Amino acid sequence: MPIDPYILLLLGTVGLAALFPASGTGADVASGASTAAIAFLFFLYGARLSTREAVEGVKHWRLHTTVLVCTFVVFPLLGLAARGLVPVFLTHDLYTGLLFLTLVPSTIQSSIAFTSIARGNVPAAICAGSFSSLAGIVITPLLAAALLGSSGGGFSADSLVKIVLQLLVPFVAGQVLRRWIGAFITRHKKVLGYVDRGSILLVVYTAFSEGMVQGIWHQVSAVRLAGLLVVEAVLLAVMLALTWYGGKALHFGRADRVAIQFAGSKKSLASGLPMASVLFGAHASLAVLPLMLFHQMQLMVCAVIAKRRARDPEVAGPADGTGPDRADGTRGTGGTRAAGGATGSAGGARRVPPGAASRNAVGTGTRSG
After folding, report:
1. d(CA 132, CA 261)
2. Are 38 and 166 in contact (CB under 8 A)?
3. What is the predicted pLDDT for the residue at 350?
4. Which of 140, 228, 245, 279 is the most exposed place for a label (fewest CB within 10 A)?
């Protein structure tokens, strides 16, 4: 099973913070740089979100509502149910991080990638991930305020103000300026992708440096980490089953069920880490640990599931090379409907060979999100 190279970078950053934590003036500089990086990150998110994708996605509102319910209702309910595992399996701090994990939005890139590999409804995955990320900017802080309260490292009205200033305002600014900078963002997508990942690494370094300075890592043992992994494995298995069989119970077609499963069962590292930094402050290191572990786990498991879904009998085309009927009644070629790449619009769908779709999806979709 694949190991996301970006996870290795994140772990390396954690190691760097453990060996050389920022303190004193260095901590102040790192904190300021982290705040600016978070704001710029969400500005880019806003500038990238295509209005056309959002409009196209509204046409499939049942699917997107299902994904949102899975992400912001079912996941948090399971997180609340896990409260009974404290203190047997989880410490209070690890549980707080686990509960926060259930509140963050879904991924975009990896949902698209795995949906494409499994020959599902790729345009729906694009829109579902975009809607979830957009909704999460507002819903995640509100859920955190309601469910975490004072356990969220001093969560207060001031935290909501920080969320608005550091996340929502830059996001809205990106959307407003998209008309003028959208083409530039598209042309330099690869370079700005490195900026994304570099910003998150800075956030991780700052958070774990603060944790080292305050000595909170002495609260976590290998046994507790093993317990956390078991709990997260069960959480992921439950969500994968609910999204797949729940989609069937709601009478969605196979292609839509694939999109629901991959968009509704995953959590975004790219959105969750900056939010945790704002919400938890010095306690962010333990708060983001469950999310980092869950992120790698979901990539490994979903990579296996996507490859198996691609071999489902209903997507095996006849001898003429045409794929099965899609939900919209048209015939597919090779059973995969791509949408101009991971960030293309739903209106620009094109047909590509199955092997190429899988290679492109894996190469671009599993690095972050």
Report:
1. 14
2. yes
3. 41
4. 245
